[in-house]
Specification:
Shape: elongated
Strand content: 35-45%
Radius of gyration: 32 Å
Number of helices: 12
Number of strands: 23
Amino acid sequence: MRHSRFTPSALAGAIALTAVAAAPAYAWDSLTVFGDSLSDSGNVGRFTYDGARHPLYDDILAADLGQSLRPSSQGGSNYAEGGAVTVPALNPALNTQDQLARWLQLNNGRAQSNGLYIHWAGANDIAAAVLANPLTAPQTVAVSASAATAQVRTLLDAGAGAVIVPNVPQLGTTPLMVETVIQLISPLGDSALQAAFQSLNATPVLSTAAREQAIQTAFSQAAGEVSAIPAVREALAQQLFALWQVLSEQVTALSDGFNQQEEAGLAALRGNIVRADIAGLLSEVIADPARYGLTNTIGMACPPGTSAAECTSATPGFSEAQRFLFADRLHPSPAVHAMIADYIRSILEAPALVSSLTAAPTGLARDMQNTLEGHLQQQRQQTPDAGEFSVFGGYAGQHADYRGGDRLTGDATRASLTLGIGYQLTDSWQAGLLLSRSDQRQHPDERYTYKLRGNLVALYSQLTLFDQGWINADVHYGDLSYDSIERRIHIGPATRTEQGNSSGKLLGFRVQSGWDFPLTSHLSTGPVVRYALDYTRAGGYRENGDSSTAMRFSDQTRHTQTGAAGWRIDTSQWPVNPWAEVTYNRQFGDAESSVRGGLKSTRTAFTRTVSSGDNNWLEAAAGASVPLTETVSAFTGVSAISGNSDRRQITWNIGLNATF
């Protein structure tokens, strides 16, 4: 097979344009590829039509990492070769075992812990097994599946950060089956093959039923090249279709067998394996191609007998009649390569999106504490007598915009209602209990949204010191409900939505203190410091669907510690008593969050670890306390975050308290 010719600058431009739409921030620094023609970027050829202009799926994934994927023959990290099998016995010249050995030798037997690796092979093993001896093909395929698993184990043992292992597409659904059946019948020649594919390419094929009808019609056209007698032509067409059914079923069974055996082996490895159900995805595309922008799933753009590696839109016989699934008898069209990249990208990014579940609940505590602080600040100005009760309630809200620094580009809104009761133990010491209910609409990213509802209970206490100092603290516990979790997956022009639900817990405390230096009888100022600790747990969940994109995710936890120091100014004994505060905040504790996820259709999983992002910010707050009567007061406040590269946030609260 000849090497294809392509212009690197043209390919780089195509990759860049493909990746512009959505290039998520991944945790990996490099991409290394092992496999066959589905992944080959130029060692043997680029197996899609107009390969010089169109990126393959792995080119697109590499661009997501900020890389240009070059073939290993040019010093790059793509070792995949068209025609490669998994075991040298089937093809001593082209196999993934030798690819892996060359890579290990060049890298001193070590993989990168922050490197991403692809191992995709097996289709050629199935074809070779059938051609060698159909009776022993299942045993040959089993050996190949075992070899593929062993090679993935080698990558993991070498220290690979994560290994993408797509399964083998259903070869029984490819145009190769039509071509093989026609070539098996000796009286049929090239004219019959040409007639069959002219028929397959002529009309849209938009369903599974239409697909079978198109194949029957194609065989009738092929038979017409042998005999003009209707009865003979029809009998031959029926024979061809029956043979196609048998062959397709047998090859599909071998594909399933390879995938199942490789799956079992990979599951036993318990490594960081990103399994991609390409067989399932393409079956779904075949069932409803129009949804994915395709009009034909059995014909092919390239003329029969021409490899996609040698085929361009200027090749004589090239068909532009349809938007094809297949470029040639085996290989995907450029549009389908882009879909495969979209699909694998969605799997890679999903655990990182799900990690946002543990970042949101601390907002419940902040809303509750804003209302509590409004109450306690007013109580410091009008201290109840020992033995008196105080009741209070307030409404708090927030709006946040994520700026993309922590992979998120969406927004969030939150509303909380808090009710509490306090008891003045002494003239300087108050303790109490409060309940808070919060509803959040979290839209951290265009690809991921959910609703968070929480019920919070807290115990609090405040102690005043020498009429100038104060210290207060609260301990809180929350029960969390994550509802209407939606993850959107873009595959070509199609958008899928996977849904799920989960629950969680929030436990934490906060302590803060300040000292007021009187400036006048109505004005005081002084420092304020605070420390907050929150522990959040979000339960794992399984998405509700059964498609190739439905996933499952593990439990996750996050420990958040925040320290703050600043200065505030207060007024008192006026009809309206405004205050203002500026603090520098630093979040520490867990610097990273990890979630393990995998497809529901597989038994493997992988872990994504995501940085917590920018943990420093300035917060400016202002508000007022308004005595309404001798025993009833109102309070309000608003605050804004600045100086944080990840988010912009505004919070507000308003409330009432009464003493009796």
